[in-house]
């Protein structure tokens, strides 16, 4: 055990001298994450404001005598109404982007409305254009006109408008604010945690395997009294630690923006800070430890196999996709943790973290998820030791 600890201290000292490791382990989660988080929110706000304020060219082809719809369209914010256009030019204008939307009202429209029938209108738009802002503004005008027509018809027939609404629906949301926000954050937190654990472990793994091959220091280590098992475990401990530290620091990076974004309501901010409780932190750490060990064993095995630092980077690149896909699946609706998903690596982490943040986690699922992660971590350790013991792996040149 003393030899393993000596190797651990030696390798940790070497890793902490590497600027790339320090960047991915500390600087990126603490500095880059808040910048990305705040920047994306500000950019989204800017884009939404820009799209709302953008003046849209909307054409109106009105072959009926109805003028109220025109007035309602003109009352919409950010509309430049174009009327000197025919039906054929309207479709061409939408396709060429000279028009963002169009409305066609046929000759029989007013006659149908006056005889208590349905009046047909045609809305022209592109669904990909500014999230169909033109269609929304046209629909707002038509909704106002429709309400006016319905109210007039009910008045003529002396009908109470409540007859059209037989149900009074009263929503009773039994979810607490903590559960709602926790479920929302539950999709983001495990995603960022796993990614940063992987990034925090990747460069130390490359350096302690392929890097030592390039420097020629691996042979010196192999000639020491330490066994290959002790060397492997010592390196695994260092790589796992750097991944774990990176994951923990990413939690700080995720929560730090709460103190810097002014337009977050105080209730949401206080609820988020309440979610980040000692129980949540301890639970997440328990999940992070086997993940870090599994990633460390996988990355270190690849690093032992690679001939050079560059080759190790190339081999580890595709692993990002393998990691991201299961986490992306947990963001989909209707996917909940059960006795099956609790055993699937990474998917179980994403789903269980949602429950932890919402405060509704069941102990049995936590135990199953942790057991599954520990099982795969043990397999990873066993494989790393086996892989390091193969001479054709270590001395592959």
Plain-language structure description:
- The chain has 16 helices and four strands.
- The chain is mainly alpha-helical.
- A four-stranded mixed beta sheet has the order 2-1-3-4, sandwiched between helices.
- α2 runs parallel beside α9.
- The chain is elongated.
- The two termini are 31 Å apart.
Classification by helices and strands: mainly alpha
Based on Cα principal axes, name the global outline: elongated
Low-confidence stretches: none
- Oligomeric state of the chains present here: single chain
The run of helices and strands is HHEHEHEHEHHHHHHHHHHH
> How many β-strand stretches?
4
Radius of gyration based on Cα positions = 31 Å
Strand count, sense and barrel status of the largest sheet are: 4 strands, mixed
On the 0 to 100 scale, the average pLDDT is 80
Helix content: 55-70%
Instruction: Report the total helices.
Output: 16
State the end-to-end distance.
31 Å
Strand content: 5-15%
Order the strands across the largest sheet as they lie in space: 2-1-3-4
